[in-house]
Design goal:
- The relative contact order is 0.11.
- The strands form 3 sheets. The chain has a 4-stranded parallel sheet with strand order 4-3-5-6. A 4-stranded parallel sheet has the order 8-7-9-10, with helices on both faces. A two-stranded antiparallel ribbon has the order 1-2.
- It is about 55% helix and about 5% strand.
- The longest helix is centred in the last third of the chain and has 18 residues.
- The chain has 4 domains: about 90 residues, Alpha-helical ferredoxin (Fumarate Reductase Iron-sulfur Protein, Chain B, domain 2, Orthogonal Bundle); about 55 residues, no CATH class; about 130 residues, 3-Layer(aba) Sandwich (Rossmann fold), CATH 3.40.50; about 120 residues, Rossmann fold, CATH 3.40.50.
- Helix 23 crosses helix 24.
- The chain has about 425 residues and is of the alpha/beta class.
- Strand 9, helix 24 and strand 10 form a beta-alpha-beta unit.
- The radius of gyration is 21 Å and the shape is globular.
- Its cofactor is [4Fe-4S] cluster.
- It catalyses: glycolate + A = glyoxylate + AH2; (R)-lactate + A = pyruvate + AH2.
- It holds the Pfam family Fer4_8.
- This is Glycolate oxidase iron-sulfur subunit.
Length: about 425
């Protein structure tokens, strides 16, 4: 892995293209917060001239969305996302994790604890949240200040019934298995509802493996590789021998984690057995819209919903999974489509980035909001529930609750008569 890292940082020719595309750099305008700066830091670390032992160095590496915009723009294919991930691992080795990330790891490692935490939060929701009377914006503000979360932040309500509790495997000879991801399992169950509705309308059988674990992305991107490895092994062991053609992963971040980061994760540990398993496992992972587009006659079944919509490209869908044209083609059969400017610019969520650096996160989102408004669309469609959460809040803050947010699957379901 050291040789691979060396190859990554030596491939950077300091051209500065990353500066022109990085959403964080565009706000902060400081070299250590852009890919070229990250590579310089890591090269000095490898040479023994620098270590990530200060608060400022931590800030440099965690104020990165891991949106991979720089990777896409780099003419030499420098893996700057890999560099940031390795540096974060070093920071965790030196400093440990912040308290809330330690708690998060403990919860994500235990599905029973996750379910219990969600149930408890649901029962206490009347005391925790102000009721939002705006039905177009399914988020609520906090009544009280919670640790690590701003009181005025809008959060989606937890679903009364999780995806895994709501659905069972369906039909015979199923060749797909569904992995919803934590956000859809616990909060945006309606997105999972839409996919299930679509599959039933197409008479497609499916498996739902209720013993699945969190994909591990929030833990891995925090630099906690040891716990991420535990979750990755569990999921690979669970799905590896299933007789399926596809594991349909509803969340782009989960899909990218499982498809691209699992093999990389085991490379860090030189685990040859699981490098092989993770690489083979990755071949079956697919986005739900990509699955429908490539394997069904869905396009011919869609009817015009009468909506005018624009589309936001989730980073982990367009850049890592290379799914760009398929959702647009389906949207054009279901609604009047208006392409927004900079449709693939990161929304600023970045998982725990939006918790740690909320003001910066919302500044990044504000540019996206302007582009949405300029498109004159009634509805913002995207393929990621985390992007929906971020952009719903940003639209609300900007005073534009009239613009609805939908997942691509919800629009497709609506177009089919859902």
């Amino acid at each position: 892995m050291d040789e691979r890292l060396k190859k990554e940082w030596e491939s950077c020719v300091k051209c500065g293209l990353c500066r022109s595309v990085c959403p964080v750099f565009k706000e902060l305008r400081q070299e250590p917060f852009v890919a070229r700066g990250h590579i310089s830091l890591l090269s000095e670390f490898i040479k023994g001239n620098f270590d990530f032992d200060s608060e400022k160095s931590k800030d440099y590496l965690y104020k990165c969305l891991l949106c991979t915009t720089c990777v896409e723009a780099c003419p030499n294919d420098s893996g700057t996302d890999t560099i940031v991930e390795i540096a974060r691992r070093r920071i965790v080795e030196l400093h440990g994790l912040p308290l809330y990330k330690k708690v998060m790891a403990k919860i994500l490692l235990n599905r029973n604890l996750m379910d219990l935490s969600a149930l408890s939060a649901n029962l206490l929701s009347v005391f925790l949240f102000n009721k939002n009377t705006n039905t177009s914006r399914q988020s609520n503000s906090l009544k009280i200040k919670l640790p690590f979360v701003d009181k005025d932040r809008l959060l989606p309500p937890l679903a009364p019934k999780t995806f895994y509790h709501k659905y069972e495997s369906y039909g015979k000879n199923a060749k797909i298995s569904i992995f919803p991801g934590c956000l859809i399992n616990y909060t945006y169950v309606k997105i999972g509802d839409a996919f299930i509705n679509i599959l039933h309308k197409l008479n497609i059988s499916y498996l739902i493996e209720k013993k699945a674990s969190c994909c591990g992305a929030p833990i891995y991107f925090s630099g906690n590789f040891d716990d991420a490895k535990i979750l990755a092994k569990r999921n690979i062991d669970l799905f590896y021998n299933q007789d399926i053609d596809y594991l349909v992963v509803l969340e782009p971040t989960c899909a990218s984690m499982m498809k691209f980061d699992y093999p990389k994760l085991f490379m860090y540990f030189d685990d040859e057995e699981y490098i092989k398993k993770a690489t083979e496992f990755a071949e079956k992972i697919i986005d739900p819209v990509k699955y429908l587009y490539d394997n069904t006659d869905i396009k011919d079944r869609l009817k015009d919903t009468g909506l005018t919509v624009t589309y936001h490209d989730p980073c982990h869908l367009k850049r890592t999974q290379k799914v760009k044209n398929e959702p647009r083609d389906l949207i054009k059969h279901a609604a009047k489509f208006k392409e927004m400017k900079e449709a693939d610019r990161c929304c600023g969520n970045g998982g725990t980035f939006s918790i740690d650096y909320r003001d910066l996160s919302l500044k990044i989102a504000s540019r996206k909001i302007n582009n949405i408004l300029n498109s004159k669309a009634q509805v913002l469609v995207t393929g990621c529930s985390a992007c929906i959460m971020q952009l719903s809040e940003a639209l609300h803050i900007a005073g534009h609750d009239e613009i609805k947010t939908l997942h691509t699957l919800e629009l497709i379901d609506k177009s089919l008569g859902g």
